[in-house]
């Protein structure tokens, strides 16, 4: 028996149930079923699955099975007439694409190359996995980044960077590089907010850059202060030396095979007194400490690292094999070794899984 009084068999069974319910939650989020259910029902006016199916333009039989799973999993409510609704206090969490809801969609893209990952574990197996083996991961990360960061990048994160960054962006004439930009969410968000500044998004993924180049302003027009480049972050163009006022990385340093080469390149392309801000996964560099201070979040992030970040960051013989949970100590040590002697660690409570590291080029 565990300290909670639950046997290991019970714990394993509960994990299996949670896995099923979590993936069913993801289906509801992708099909907007929670939002539709909250729009047409309440405790006083519950609805039949056929009513939800009609509102969501889905097949009734599939929607009925989904409702049954959600009710038995205690996500939505059901009465004896088999009518369903969402508790009023849960409408906001389920009806909007909050971070916690979106996170339930992570397992499907992570498990796509599961058989290949199993081979990576073996002594004589491959070193790691290619980014291209995760065909839907970039799209998911774009959705998750938006849910996690959209409300706080401009209002909270940028002021926390300091060095007059907000004022410089507003005044214009500055160049900003977003390393590991993925599908371009952060770059486009900032480019729209600060039209007088110029933004460059860089990513090694062909599909990611293709998605990024399709981004438009909220008005549907083409950006005139934003460009995207497919490039290895460890081998940036030579003409970029001393050319950027601000370089940003959002959760994209730890899964590179050679993050040290990336940070060295960032140091090179920054102007003197330029600013580097790296948003990375929360962690201490010690699993015992992480377990004690982060609880179940630590288990989730170590697991995500095992499925994706570690294998893509281990896929060459010279790889440093950091993983998502490399943590504060290793991150600060790496930045210092790569040319940033003074590193400021900034708490980001508005980003619940992150810390931010800020440094200037001297």
What are the key terms here?
SAM-dependent_MTases_sf, WHD_Rv2258c, 362 residues, alpha/beta, Methyltranfer_dom, seven-stranded mixed beta sheet, single chain
Short description:
This protein is 46% helix and 14% strand.
Tell me about this structure.
With 362 residues, this protein is α/β, with parallel strands linked by helices. Helices cover 46% and strands 14% of the residues. The chain has a seven-stranded mixed beta sheet with strand order 5-4-3-6-7-9-8, sandwiched between helices. Strands 1-2 form a two-stranded antiparallel ribbon. α2 crosses α3 (49-56) and α15 (287-294) packs across α16 (296-312). Residues 173-282 form the Methyltransferase domain. Residues 24-84 form the S-adenosylmethionine-dependent methyltransferase Rv2258c-like winged HTH domain. InterPro entries: Methyltranfer_dom, SAM-dependent_MTases_sf, WHD_Rv2258c. This is Methyltransferase domain-containing protein.
- Overall morphology: globular
Strand order of the largest sheet: 5-4-3-6-7-9-8
Our count of helices gives 17
Q: Termini, distance in Å?
A: 56 Å
Pfam family, one: WHD_Rv2258c
Protein name: Methyltransferase domain-containing protein
Organism: Caenorhabditis briggsae
């Amino acid at each position: 028996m565990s300290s909670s009084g639950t046997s290991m068999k019970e714990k394993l069974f509960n994990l299996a149930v949670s896995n099923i319910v979590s993936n069913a939650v993801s289906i509801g989020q992708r099909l907007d079923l929670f939002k539709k259910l909250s729009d047409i029902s309440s405790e006083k006016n519950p609805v039949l699955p056929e009513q939800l199916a009609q509102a969501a333009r889905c097949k009734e039989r599939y929607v009925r099975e989904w409702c049954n799973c959600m009710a038995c999993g205690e996500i939505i409510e059901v009465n004896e007439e088999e009518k369903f609704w969402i508790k009023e206090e849960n409408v906001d969490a389920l009806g909007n694409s909050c971070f916690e809801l979106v996170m339930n969609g992570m397992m499907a893209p992570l498990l796509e190359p599961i058989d290949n990952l199993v081979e990576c574990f073996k002594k004589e197996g491959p070193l790691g996995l290619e980014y291209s083996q995760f065909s839907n991961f970039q799209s998911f990360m774009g959705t998750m980044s938006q849910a996690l960061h959209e409300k706080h990048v401009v209002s909270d994160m940028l002021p926390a960077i300091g060095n007059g960054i907000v004022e410089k962006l507003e005044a214009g004439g500055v160049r900003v590089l977003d390393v590991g930009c993925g599908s371009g969410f952060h770059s486009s968000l900032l480019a729209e907010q600060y039209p007088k500044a110029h933004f460059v998004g860089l990513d090694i993924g062909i599909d990611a850059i293709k998605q990024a180049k399709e981004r438009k302003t909220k008005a549907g027009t083409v950006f005139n202060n934003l460009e995207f480049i497919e490039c290895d972050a460890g081998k940036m163009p030579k003409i970029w030396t001393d050319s950027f006022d601000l370089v940003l990385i959002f959760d994209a340093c730890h899964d590179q095979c050679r993050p040290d080469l990336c940070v060295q390149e960032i140091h090179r392309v920054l102007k003197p007194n330029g600013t580097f801000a790296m948003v990375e996964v929360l962690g201490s560099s010690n699993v015992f400490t992480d377990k004690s201070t982060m609880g179940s979040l630590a288990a989730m992030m170590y697991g995500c690292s095992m499925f994706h970040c570690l294998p893509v960051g281990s896929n060459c013989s010279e790889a440093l094999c950091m993983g998502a949970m490399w943590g504060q100590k290793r991150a600060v040590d790496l930045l210092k070794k790569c040319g940033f002697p003074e590193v400021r660690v900034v708490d980001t409570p508005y980003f619940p899984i992150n810390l931010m590291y800020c440094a200037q080029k001297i």
